[in-house]
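Predict the 3D structure for this chain.
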Amino acid sequence: MKLYIGGAHQGKAAYVTAQTGLSPVPCGPEEALSAPAVDRFHRICRTVLEQGGDLTAYIDRFLAGNPGAVVVSDEIGLGVVPLDPFERRWREETGRALCRLAAASERVERISCGLGLRLK
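Done. Predicted structure below.
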């Protein structure tokens, strides 16, 4: 697995396409389980939570079913802590999910201004 993270509108998808030859596409939770390059993984996490799903169980399925995936996600835990309990939960659980993906990844990069910084 390869994980690419960064702020919104920082050129992550274009960077990943140039680096891997794969074009990340937005997917739903089920599609992501077999997609070669997944864009907006943070939105998948939100969808799982909105549907009442267990994000930890979903990440287990994702890691087992799609270990070679290229994953692109916004970092959503920076900035002001939201007052809304669901918004806080989404940020917290997505952060934990991305930590699990990073641990399982062979490569992790942070993208800012279209430039990558290798973390792992």
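The radius of gyration is 13 Å.
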